[in-house]
Structure formats: structure tokens, C-alpha cells
Amino acid sequence: MLPDFKNQDLLITALTHRSALNEKEQSGTSASESNERLEFLGDAVLELASSIFLYQERPADAEGMLTTYRSALVRTETLAELAKELGLDQRIYLSKGEEAGGGRDNPGLLADLLEAVVGALYLDQGFSAVQSFLDQVLFPKFNGILASKAYRDQKSLLQEVVQARSLSTPVYRVIKEEGPDHDKTFTVEVLIDKQVWGVGKGNSKQRAQQASASMALKKITDDN
Predict the structure, then answer these.
(1) What local confidence, expressed as pLDDT, does residue 157 receive?
(2) Is the pLDDT of residue 81 over 70?
(3) What is the pLDDT of residues 181-205, one digit of tens each?
(4) pLDDT at 115
(5) Active site residues
(6) 1 lies in a domain?
């Protein structure tokens, strides 16, 4: 659950996608700017808070391992999942076109949204409030990341798993590209033995591949 904001205008700005500014009356936002600047700030605040958490949580791990853990903790899929858990996907202000194009389910858009909210919270109440918020909603996910080895490269891990089961090499295929060149969303499916085992989205082909590999790994785990 989101903390109560002292400055509601900050929260509204954090929830305002740039597309909504072109249709302010229809989208319902009262913001005068989009959440992009808050996203920029939130990204940095989130990285610092996660670094402090991991530094304290894993005192025996070297820098390289901590960096790997942090990448998994703040990657697009993790943040998008959290944004949905917090109900931010239903609160974001979007244009009709962005919404019709699946904006409320776009992992990249949702991850950016979560970062913007973190940036807004930092401006509203300071770093300690951000840490307290993340202690409740994000950092508890770290144990699951460790247990599932989600900190590892998902494509490499999937390759190891399918080889161990004598399955064919995973094949990744882009099935959809959406959005303008500067803000594309890719949808990628991964096939094993000519069957689709996972589908993932991302703001790059590489991230979409990682997301599809992660889904395939979950499917393999659930089936065994």
C-alpha cells in the first residue's frame, strides 16, 4: 500500500504518463508535467536504497555479487510486478491510445511508474520514508530472488535447465513491436521443441527475452 502523501500534486504527477498530457480532460490528470523527471530521480533513489539494503543484508558478498543481486531486485519485471501489486496500473493517467495499446500491462511503463512514485515520495517525505516503504513492499522479494536464482541471467539458466532435461535449445522470436522508435515495447516468445514456453515484454529485445526465459523457467518448475 502506498504511504499517504502530504503533497498530493506530487503523487498526481508521478502517476501521469506523458501521453495523458495531450488529453488532459479525457485522462483526468491535473498535472502540468509528466512523471519522466520523477522517474529519473526515483531511479537513483531506488538504486541507493537497494544498495544500502544489500550491503547490510549480505555482509559477506563481494561487490560483483551485490551488483548482480541489485540488478535482479530493481529490474523491469520485478518493479512492474510490484506496481501491479500496489494497484498503480489502475491509477496511472494515460491517453486513450496508450491505454488501448495495453499501457496498463506494459512492464516498462509500469516499472517507470514505480520509479516515479519513489521519486515523488523522496521529495514529499525524504529518504527514510522511501527506505521504510521499500522495506515493506520490495525488499521482502529478495528471499524469493535468492531461492529461485532469479539474480542469474535467465537465458543462461534456462539453457542449463533444458540441457539437463535433454530438450532442444530455446529459440527466441519477436512476435510484436509497439510504440515509437524512442519508446518501443517488444514482445518475445521462447520456443522449446517448437512449443511456446514463455512470453515476455520489455523496452528492449534483450529484456523481453529475459522476461520470456523467466516465464519458461517458472513453467518448468511448476510442472515438476
Answers:
(1) 85
(2) yes
(3) 777 888 999 999 999 999 988 878 8
(4) 97
(5) 43, 115
(6) no
User: Are 70 and 15 in the same domain?
Assistant: yes
CATH of the domain at 75: 1.10.1520.10
Q: How many domains does the structure of the chain reveal? A: 2
The last residue of one of the domains, among 148, 173, 191, is 148
Q: Which pTM does this prediction carry?
A: 0.78
Average pLDDT of the chain? Answer: 91
Residue 214 domain boundaries: 154-222
Kindly report the three-state secondary structure assignment for every residue of the chain: CCCCCCCHHHHHHHCECHHHHHHHHHHCCCCCCCCHHHHHHHHHHHHHHHHHHHHHHCCCCCHHHHHHHHHHHCCHHHHHHHHHHCCHHHCCECCHHHHHCCHHHCHHHHHHHHHHHHHHHHHHHCHHHHHHHHHHHCHHHHHHHHHHCCCCCHHHHHHHHHHHCCCCCCEEEEEEEECCHHHCEEEEEEEECCEEEEEEEECCHHHHHHHHHHHHHHHHHHCC
Same domain, 120 and 186: no
pLDDT (average), residues 3-10: 96
* Shared domain check, 132 and 65: yes
pLDDT at residue 221 greater than cutoff 80: no
Chosen domain end from 148, 179, 206: 148
